[in-house]
């Protein structure tokens, strides 16, 4: 039997963080050898400043004979996704194929049911090897495919970012707080993210309101996230598109792409390319410390993947989104 404990992100001691990071590092090197290994600081900061859009974070660690052997990480999104739990189970590579992951799955299932969740999904899943077999054995099915694209800022030709703004539009930038005169139009434009292909994932686009925008802005500020936005505004003053990029405290050298959206009536004019190029010029100006930009794009979203390639991104890995109903995961 495992000794499963709720991990105290705020109060964990140095030894607990050492153990947690060592296991995360071992799993990362085994599952994603082509990606840069996370630092200890990134491990800690990534949990203390999680992605606020994904709702409440819960984390349990599992011990056997005093050794940390696995963990289960759960995000509980809200704003129309109260039925869904995003689940990530990791087991130390030296101890896999011993039933630890299955035991953790059975441990967490009733807790998710108590929270009213009915669907469980895994995002950014490595479908190769043992993990793919484990996922299929437990009834998860592939519902969406994504690609990780990375730009190496030290080697990119920045002339790629010299893109003209399409006629009839102007670009507006801000950090952290949307201007009061644009926030309502900005919230309305954000709803268009629902048009992005997500396969059969149970995650639905939230109903973006001014209140939600302000709440997430406040969360970014609280967690020390430098969040920048560029929007395209048409002649009527309406927001026709937007793109987001942020530097998280977990690794200030790496920029993480948020949503990029162009409203249907404004597509086909190059706004996505123009906004993202402007964002890259702005965020990297005078910042020699920045090393990479990461973005995740749906495999089916070939247009956005092509925009990213034109700007200097390279596709480095594909991931799966897997899903199943919570019913049936309850322990007997």
Report on the architecture of this protein.
With 332 residues, the protein is α+β, with helices and mostly antiparallel strands. It has 2 domains: 151 residues, 3-Layer(aba) Sandwich (Aminopeptidase); 167 residues, Gcn5-related N-acetyltransferase (GNAT) (Aminopeptidase, 3-Layer(aba) Sandwich), CATH 3.40.630.30. Helix content is 29%, strand content 31%. It is built from 8 helices and 12 strands. It has a 12-stranded mixed beta sheet, sandwiched between helices. Strand 4, helix 3 and strand 5 form a beta-alpha-beta unit. The longest helix has 18 residues. The radius of gyration is 21 Å and the shape is globular.
Which range best describes the helical content: under 10%, 10-25%, 25-40%, 40-55%, 55-70% or over 70%?
A: 25-40%
Number of helices: 8
> In percent, how much strand structure appears in the residues?
25-35%
Order of helices and strands: EHHEEEHEHEEHHEEEHEHE
Distance, first to last CA:
16 Å
- Looking at CATH, the homologous superfamily of the largest domain is Gcn5-related N-acetyltransferase (GNAT)
The fold-level CATH name of the largest domain is Aminopeptidase
Question: Strands across the major sheet, in which order?
Answer: 1-2-3-4-5-12-6-11-10-9-8-7
- Low-confidence stretches at least 5 residues in length (pLDDT < 50)? none
Which CATH-level-2 architecture of the largest domain? 3-Layer(aba) Sandwich
Shape: globular
- Gyration radius, rounded: 21 Å
Largest sheet: 12 strands, mixed
